[in-house]
Specification:
Elements lengths: L1 E5 L1 H5 L8 H13 L2 E4 L5 H7 L9 E3 L4 E3 L6 E4 L4 H13 L5 E6 L2 E6 L5 H12 L5 E3 L3 H4 L4 E7 L2 H15 L3 E6 L9 E6 L4 H11 L6 E6 L5 H6 L2 E4 L5 H6 L2 E2 L7 H13 L1
Parallel strand pairs: 1-2, 1-12, 7-8, 12-13, 13-14
Antiparallel strand pairs: 3-4, 4-5, 6-7, 6-9, 9-11, 10-11
Length: 280
């Protein structure tokens, strides 16, 4: 038997960030027949649940690039990997010293929170407005993000032009070393405004998939994963078969065992159905 794990944006979802009717119907049918499937996304479980609504997943989802393993329908976390509090404060201070204002997601006694203080470009404004329009229950405005970091920081996100963020990324890596996992990746829906995303070093998709497989007695199964972006590379390397969609970046295609069609052609769903039925 096989465990299939797919990234969402740019992979399982269409260019409108939706699960197409074809893919939704196919997954419902195969899940009812016993397919072992879940998703591993940079999105939070609240966003995943909104997109995959009513999909009968029996397994939890991996969200925030592996920072959480969560039950989709309830949003309850089975596992949370947060950053070291002192390190998170130091990284935040470095960002502010360099004139950047990040978004910060925390998890603690108050539950999930996503803090924003101010926006300084159109992409940051879009980030806030999208979450407001989607009713993101985590979103909180604050006059001082630094004061909110009393709860463990799970994710920091900075949205700016690429050149200044590359320099900042190098400084953060020099400060934190291998204690964090950091990615700089293009926004699929707003070209020219990449995201710099920071997590604890334990918060990677490959580590989360391994943990999930162990917890649900799936560790002896073949693992097949699908991805398109830099944050998918570790899980492609760790999987028995790593599959890149046709629209994936070159680095992902180089790591993949196979390259299939692009995400707008429901290529992941078509591959899973053919592969799973052949294995049965």
């Amino acid at each position: 038997m096989t465990l299939y794990v797919s990234d969402l944006d740019g992979t399982l979802l269409n260019p409108q960030a939706e699960l197409s009717a074809f893919t939704r119907a196919g997954l419902v049918r195969l899940l009812d027949e016993g397919l072992s499937f879940t998703v591993a996304s940079a999105r939070h479980v609240s966003s995943i649940g909104r997109i995959l609504r009513d999909l009968p997943l029996r397994l939890p989802v991996i969200s925030a690039n592996g920072a959480y393993i969560s039950e989709m329908s309830s949003g309850q976390h089975e596992l949370v990997h947060a950053m070291d509090p002192a390190l998170a404060q130091a990284i935040f201070a470095l960002m502010r010293w360099r004139g950047f204002m990040p978004f910060a997601a925390t998890y603690g006694p108050r539950g999930d929170r996503l803090f924003w203080q101010s926006v300084h470009n159109e992409a940051q404004l879009d980030f806030v407005e999208q979450r407001q329009s989607n009713g993101d229950p985590r979103l909180r405005h604050t006059d001082n993000i630094g004061a909110e970091l009393v709860d463990p920081v799970v994710t920091m996100i900075l949205i700016e032009r690429a050149a200044p963020m590359r320099a900042l990324m190098a400084e953060i890596q020099a400060l934190a070393g291998d204690a964090i996992d950091i990615h700089l990746a293009d926004d699929l829906y707003r070209p020219g405004w990449p995201w710099l995303t920071l997590h604890d070093r334990r918060a990677t998709k490959d580590q989360a998939i391994k943990t999930l497989a162990q917890r649900y007695d799936l560790h002896e199964r073949e693992i097949v994963v699908f991805g398109d972006q830099v944050n998918d590379i570790t899980m492609l390397r760790a999987a028995h078969r790593g599959i890149a969609v046709g629209n994936a970046i070159a680095e992902v295609k180089q790591e993949a065992h196979a390259v299939i069609g692009p995400h707008h052609e429901d290529s992941v769903m078509r591959f899973i159905e053919t592969d799973w039925r052949r294995s049965r």
